[in-house]
Amino acid sequence: MSKNTRSSLDLHATPISELQYKSSRQQMKDELQLEQIIHDKFTRHSDNGDAEKWLSQTVTQFKQYELSTSDQLQALPYLLEDIAYLWYVEHMDLITSFESFNKLFLQQFSSTSSTVRSNTPTETVMPSVVASSSLLTSH
Prior knowledge:
By secondary structure, the protein is mainly α. The protein has helices at residues 3-13, 16-41, 51-64, 69-79, 82-91, 98-109, 133-136. It has one domain (7-114).
């Protein structure tokens, strides 16, 4: 039996739990590497500063480091801090892709956004009508 055939057979003899363990370890290693890249090379956003500029810079860096769309989505919590991180946690169920994050993030943090930045509902102010005293007197 050749050496190549033997290693091929050994692969098939490896228990599934061991393969899953190796896969899980590799996934944790990849996640730690991603976190380290984000920590070392990226600027974090905390609600002060230009949100559009930060997002543009982040997208450029994602391309530079060739991060997959899955890695981009996974990197989000590491890229945000303070108010921006709390906002992310509150909205993470709505964030299903990096594109949906972009839209929601800019709605919340962009200085040119027409939406209300607060998470609390706002009151609608109705115009008041002032009746003159002549309309109020009966004839």
